[in-house]
Amino acid sequence: MPELGRAALALCLGLALYALVAGAYAAKTRRRRLARSAQNALLAAFGATGVASIVLLAALLRNDFSFTYVAEHTSRELPTAYTISAFWGGQEGSLLLWLLILTGFSAAAVALSRRTAADLLTWVVPVLGLVATFFAFMLVVVSSPFDTQLATADGAGLNPSLQNPYMMIHPPCLYLGYVGLTIPFAFAMGALLARRTDELWIVATRRWTLFAWTALGIGQLLGSHWAYVEVGWGGYYAWDPVENAALMPWLAATAFLHSVMIQEKRGMLKVWNVLLVILAFCLALFGTFLTRSGVVSSIHSFTQSPLGGWFLGFITLIIAGSLALVITRLPILRSKTRMESLVSREATFLYNNLLLVALCLTILWGVAFPILSEAVHGEQITVSSPYYNFFLRVFGLPLLVLMAIGPLVAWRRASLRSLGRSFAWPAGLALVVGAVLLVLGAGSSWIGLVAYTFCAFVLGSIGYEFVRGTRARRALTGGSWVAAFVELVGRNRRRYGGYIVHAAIVLLAIGIIGSSAYDTVRERTLAPGQSLAISHYVVKYDQLVRRNGPNATEFRAILDVKKNGSSVGTLESGKNSYRAEDQVSNEVGIRSDPLTGEDLYVITDQINKNGTIAFKVFVKPLVNLIWISGLVFLLGSLVALWPSAAEQRRLAARYHELRALARA
Amino acid sequence: MAAVLAIFLLYVSVAGGTPSIQPSQLHGRTGEVALVGKVTGAPAGDAHSAPLRFRMRDVSGASASIPVVYRGSVPDLFKVGREVRVEGRLQNGVFLAKKDSLRTKCPSKYVAKKA
Amino acid sequence: MSALAFAIGALLAVTCVVFVALPFIREPDPAEDRLDEPGALERRALELAEERDRALSALKELEFDHRTGKVSDEDYRELVGPLRARVAEALRALEPQAQSTEERVHAAS
To answer: For a tag site, which of A247, A318, A475, A519 has the least CB within 10 Å?
Structure first.
């Protein structure tokens, strides 16, 4: 069976190469049948990768330890769900998942765009073929999941820290995001190669970009939740290179989502948009590479990993190739339109872009700095949270303000008087909220207070937009408020979906600010019966129990929690000791307050032989808003993603009636 | 504007960064560093009360070891032979670690384990 | 190598090759094999169509912003005139394209 897997991957490599070479030749010499053949090759590549994936999955499910990969990442006692997740738990498998999603998305993009963007597609196919060739090559030559060995009796098992439901969803979600960014990239390159200057590539890939961006966002949020709940060190984001690896392409994609609107409305920023999509894609590749090869810890581990050199080579090739392409097409891309006013929606979008890209590059600098400093000084210098948090504030706070201002400003030019009127209510609300918070004691962190005021400003402006829109809709068509609201959103899905997403970001910001600027920490070693007071809670350590789980011995401290004097139940916090892997993991106890959204978070730091336990206890206000924001984010994206028949008709008219015209 | 950002970034990262070095390179350095190496010898004490004392040597194992004094959270993966990272400064031949800065490198893929 | 694996592999390979060769199998000797490509005329028409759509959507948005109160009455009066002119111009620019193609066809036939 492994030979089938290897053969399927080799077949995929051949098909991808054919799609690349034949596709490029067909596009250049304008051959219809060859171009179609290249498209089919891309579709077939998905089939071949599918077969290879099934072979690996089957081997995992039947515990075939003659596959080195299966032996390294699973064991007989591993629950089935985690055996499946082992598909992407290791390097080779995750590359296969990348290729599977890539060929799948490519096939879908080809199938969906065959009629609406036929001539653009002829150049998109070789670009997709190029990326697929790289990954197929890696899987066939460098890092194959189908290496075999003498079958062992049992496998090494999955790292205990990966044995939780998040492992089922977090990596695939992120991969959908990373790979998803390949489609807009390929269409952008295709448009350049075809010497086109229109926005068909943007229109054709708008939903792809939105989908990939949403998947990246949700994937990261899941990862943060995982870190918070399972890894249990007390936080949800540590500015780790692997965490930043997903944040950077997401920021670039956010900038891109906004700047394409400028191209759509004003025909400007064509070059900037192409550069942004290249940046987003390269960061997605870089992110995959970072997470997979543990590169950033040291330049030496980088050269030791077989993957490192290849990936970096490919990224360099992509950067060089796409930049060269942009430079040669520069004359035709330059637009004649100038920005009319610094106070217009285009301008706010531009400022937003600059801030997002600046934040993205700042993070990139922080991630790459150790490698660069080692190359220059011979010594690795790392930067950590203080650096990142500083820049997050520097760029994040203005971004919050822009989120409030943007929707209130009109395109092209906004007169100060209409601006003043639009601002009045939201700004007034923000000041009131700020004053109230100050009275309630939020002044302990002035940055937190300022940030909260900005958040109120944004929420006020979004609410105002919804109210004004619904009122106008109702004035136009009559009917109830609810009907008017639904109609309003239905007719302007991108705009109002976008506002909902902004609201989600604000909730995220409030959750982050609350849990970092206003949190409390206490550390104490307690003997059974002793208690610890923190904020308005009193935590009493009752006893330590020991249980036998399926593959680990579980130690739990039973804690009695009182809030404001009255008992609110018990909490368990402790550690798991995994027998097979000989590892210990932290199992934190979290009590979420449904009304205030705050968490009581208890880490069992150390269980001492004499029965005392060293505890570390946090109270994190508003932290659950972070997870709730994910749901709102998803809702907003869905609204924006939802296809609109009217829009499809309009676009079809634009791109089809002209062809009919030309042919007539 | 890009130039301003670039200069600012350079300054902040150079000023704010912490060098990562191994025990053999520690000799003579007085500033705050991040010490990376393998745990050796028998750790003694308790990081939460009397400080935890252990020794660290180079990852490659070649050099002599440095004594480390640490207070704070100890990662579950911490044990002799594990690769760890801890911040602090060298004082009188002993490395005084910053509280809660001890991290272990996960033996398999993925991220360094935190306490 | 098990017989089943070989069979599946062979089937897969054959299917893929056939699928890739399909365009050539279906049309072994076509009348023309050229790929349609937007000519200069079509590109210009596309550019103008995009400009038309931009102007139309800007007008629509101005109306919407005015109705929701984002743009004041004075601002609206100032902006709507030039925008309407722009839309008219964009629509006019597209007309000759349609006309000239039709004229050429008529001339040819």
So the answer is: A475
